[in-house]
Amino acid sequence: MADETKFSGADLLIDALQANGLHNIYGVVGIPVTDFARLAQIKGMKYYGFRREDSAVDAAAAAGFLTGKPGLALTVSAPGFLNGIAALAQATENCFPLIMISGSSDRHIIDLNRGDYEGMDQYNIAKPFCKAAYRVDRAQDMGLAVARAIRTAVSGRPGGVYLDLPAATITDMATKEETAIYKLVDPAPKQLPSDEAIDRAVELLKNAKRPLILLGKGAAYARSEDEVKELVEETDIPFLPMSMAKGLLPDTHKSSAVAARSLSLNNADVVFLIGARLNWMLSNGESPLFAEDVKFIQADIDATEFDSNREISAPLQGDIKSVLEKLVPAVKKAGVHAPQDWLGRIEQDVEKNDAKFSARIKASFTAPKFGYYGTIEPINQLFQKHPDTYLVSEGANTLDIGRDLINMNLPRHRIDTGTWGVMGIGLGYAIAAAVETGKHVIALDGDSAFGFDGMEMSTICRYNLPITVVVVNNGGIYNGMDKVVPDQPGPTQLNDNAHYEYLSKAFGGNSYFVTNHDEMVKALNEAYESGKPSLINAQIAPTMGKESGHIGNLNPKLDLNPKDNL
């Protein structure tokens, strides 16, 4: 005889999530989801409460990237939902699997626009900002809703999914037999390229005079480090990692062309894109960054990515790991190897640039003005001693210089602002990295970036997470010297004498204020060894930092001569 016991929609949703191995929720509660979060805790899930919804959704997105399973975010209705939308959209753009669940108002009031508390048609608003949106109107549909959401989030190109949860559905009742909760079978099936596609790619690599491999975060997400290593070490083809692909191979690997980036990109005749997109971060594949006659091989799970900016001579559609599992044996059989004269050119450029860089770093330790190098190089030294540490980074100059200075040795250990370059992801991403991995995390923030989500120090301290936040404070967006009108602060000016470390102290964390390299080394090591929530406020000179970091060309310049603007 069938069990006729009925359960609430909230009960059934939690059961469906747990049946599929999803146990952590990042969120902000209130009407109508407060008891949902409490019930999730009672039933064995972990709930991490944030101070703003965008940070919570960012955390869930980072969890998705790190685990390969969709991260779970929970928000309240209307304003809370809208706060989370930017992070949902960013997760989709970054290809991070995520399910954002938001409580919503009663449909019969919303659909007739009768004026409900926090009334908003969230389901339709969310659609343009995610891979898919689903609304659950009956408790008995919870199993199906979770199955749809998970498969959508992780299959093909990963991304964000919105799950609309009306208040009435939370308390609606259904039996487990009606609900049909189940664990998905193969939610992200393998996809392999054709033999013809493999042959085209091998032929291009075999005949290349100046081949180059470009690694993107898609290769990191795919957990393809073993295949990438075999490809590089079999062929000696130089490689360049995009920022979140750093660590797929150690930055110190002999085939790394990071220190010869301009030379290798400008002169390559065949470029193999592995989980990387020819978007703005690679000048859309255009010259002068790339040669006019360069040929591209591209491995991507989404065929619409091919030819999006440049002709792709050898498209390889499939999930990255399966593509490489099929390609690498073919490359080995064909005897593909990078020409020695090309390797020699890159090696010379690497040695020359490394020598310049090392001298610049060394000089920074005793420079009259404390700056980025003196602050960030100690973090690099810490990572070489403790490679299984996670790095989250955001800012303009802080992000750019940190990317160049900090060598990564392990895959998926660096997360940053991603495709859109959005600020305010730092502490949310850091919290997820600490929760999902149990490892120590360094969150490296510019002072402007820290301002977007600094109150999440409360969250870090409340859950006693091993996160050290480093705020590089030059007193402004880009720098603290902007003042175009004498009697008011400039548009990019902040506070060069701010004591951000007090925010950590306010919630029970460790706090440090440093003004030189030696103090930074001491504070960083103390904070790391403590394993406790910590914040280091590194006050550097306000003159340090340039407009927009490495992408000042994207910031239009206007005539600011007062005589011309009266």
The residue-averaged pLDDT reads 95
Low-confidence stretches: none
Total DSSP helices: 22
Rg is 25 Å
The number of strands is: 19
Explain what you see.
With 566 residues, the chain is α/β, with parallel strands linked by helices. 40% of the residues lie in helices and 16% in strands. The protein contains 22 helices and 19 strands. A six-stranded parallel beta sheet has the order 3-2-4-5-7-6, sandwiched between helices. Helix 3 (53-67) crosses helix 18. It is globular. The model has no long low-confidence stretch (mean pLDDT 95).
Protein traits:
single chain; 566 residues; alpha/beta; six-stranded parallel β-sheet; 19 strands; 40% helix; globular
Summarize the topology:
Layout: E1 6-8, H1 9-19, E2 24-27, H2 34-42, E3 46-49, H3 53-67, E4 71-75, H4 79-94, E5 98-104, H5 107-110, H6 122-126, E6 132-135, H7 142-154, E7 160-166, H8 167-171, E8 173-175, H9 176-179, H10 195-207, E9 211-215, H11 217-221, H12 225-235, E10 239-241, H13 261-267, E11 270-274, E12 295-300, E13 314-317, H14 320-334, H15 340-364, H16 372-385, E14 390-394, H17 397-405, E15 414-416, H18 426-437, E16 441-446, H19 447-453, H20 457-462, E17 467-473, H21 501-506, E18 510-514, H22 517-530, E19 534-539
Parallel strand pairs: 2-3, 2-4, 4-5, 5-7, 6-7, 9-10, 9-11, 11-12, 12-13, 14-15, 14-16, 16-17, 17-19, 18-19
Antiparallel strand pairs: 1-8
